[in-house]
From TrEMBL:
Gene3D superfamilies in UniProt: Zinc/RING finger domain, C3HC4 (zinc finger)
RING-type domain sequence ranges: 141-176
Biased composition (Pro residues): 1-11
InterPro entries found in the cross-reference section: Znf_RING, Znf_RING/FYVE/PHD
Coiled-coil blocks: 69-117
Tree of life domain: Eukaryota
Name of the molecule in the record: UNKL isoform 5
Transmembrane region(s): none
UniProt keywords, alphabetically: Coiled coil, Metal-binding, Zinc, Zinc-finger
GO molecular function terms noted in the UniProt entry: zinc ion binding
């Protein structure tokens, strides 16, 4: 049985995590102690990167590290600028969203008040209609419901029948059984 083969060393692409000349060393990727897998697993401790250190660069590699440091700082500044733009955009969107929510709440409240007013108006309309119907019926003959009542019945004094119905009805519809006297 043959032992498993080791994967070939990783090559970095230009512009991605350092220069093309940098490679994985015992210290880690681009001189950072540990590996990227330490960061993913959570065992990475945030120590300052030698690339981003604020100290003066060593004289032996002053120009390559200085140029790379300037490029990384420029990328960092650009990323910070984009984050500020996104935060400003987010705040604007949030303000617009909050305004829309306030408008929606106000519209809901106005709709609720309008519905309440509508219900109250419908109730008043029904009450007025009932009163009008009652008054109209109170003036109608209780026998034919076509003409206004006009006859006063004797001896009970009810005023509920029209003249033609009073002449043909033998007793008062309210008194039931008491004969009318003419």
């Amino acid at each position: 049985m043959t032992p498993p083969q080791q994967p070939p060393p990783l090559r970095s692409e230009p512009g991605a995590l350092g220069s093309a000349a940098s490679s994985y060393s015992p210290l880690g990727l681009n001189g950072v102690p540990g590996s990227i897998w330490d960061f993913v697993s959570g065992s990475f401790s945030p120590s300052p990167s030698p690339i981003l250190s604020a100290g003066p660069p060593s004289s032996s590699s002053a120009s390559p590290n200085g140029a790379e440091l300037a490029r990384v700082r420029q990328q960092l500044d650009e990323a910070k600028r984009k984050i500020r733009q996104w935060e400003e955009s987010w705040q604007q969107v949030k303000q617009v969203c909050d305004a829309w929510q306030r408008e929606a709440q106000e519209a809901k409240e106005r709709a609720r008040v309008a519905d309440s007013d509508r219900q109250l108006a419908l109730q008043k309309k029904e009450e007025v209609e009932a009163q009008v119907i009652f008054q109209l019926r109170a003036k109608q003959c209780v026998a034919c419901r076509e003409r206004a009542h006009g006859a006063v019945l004797q001896p009970c004094q009810h005023h509920i029948l029209c003249e033609p119905c009073a002449a043909t009805t033998p007793e008062c519809p309210y008194c039931k059984g008491q004969p009318l006297q003419w």
